[in-house]
Write a structure and sequence with these properties.
This protein is an alpha/beta fold. It is built from twelve helices and twelve strands. 37% of the residues lie in helices and 22% in strands. It is elongated, with a radius of gyration of 19 Å.
Amino acid sequence: MSGQGFVVVTSASGVSDAEAAQVADALSGSEPRRLADTAVDFALPSATDVGALRAQFQQFDLNWVPGRNREKKLLIADMDSTMISVECIDELADFAGVKDEVSRITDLAMQGELDFEEAILARVGLLRDLPVSSLSDCYAERVKLNPGAWTLVQTMNSRGAVTALVSGGFDYFTGRVAEEVGFASHQANVLLEQDGRLTGDVGRPILGRAAKLEALGEKLRENGLGFEEVIAVGDGANDLDMVAASGLGVAYHAKPALAEAADARLDHSDLTALLALQGIPQSSWITRDH
């Protein structure tokens, strides 16, 4: 089994038996196994280049994962545009009336065209004098979980995995998202405040691309785990080192810089696809109606 791998086919809109049969034909008759309404996989004896399959079946996400250590013991995840649907700093900027300017800087940073620390200082500087009360308004009005986030984290927790939320965003938001979703820990930057208003600065050291990788290393040491036992997920260049170092690095609706480097890319799936990539069937998922 150690040399075996799996082609995993996922889509938030579902993968029908007929569609699975079409993929099976393209894989020379390999039999599909139903993992979920939204996922099937195919056992294969060796690694498969899925590039041609992706071109043929553009309505799905198709990824190859190795069979060895397929189910992971540590989930480490980005927050903004990964676990939640927005970039919190962009939404805060909207409250401050500078969203367009801040969003342009965010996009450059996520594409990897601007140093993250430089970008965060520039953006936070534009939030100077924003009332601290705007953070709670922003969370209540703008922050929504991405589909599958709760089920992903709760299922990993139920199977004994370590779950960690590590963000280049702000701990005001990671603390609340971690509690809502069920992450065991969270880590992010701290917005500095004085007299009820933001100062336009963040605490040091700044948690960016290198610090995310360091945070991953710390979690491994704390729990006696190896990199091969990690599944990491993110969407931007800030997540690249963390994703590249992990046993299974996943680019979720990601910018090209990350999508090209990740082991798996998800453009058509929700976050439950991370469970399917690990071979965890829907019958074992923790859902809100349990």
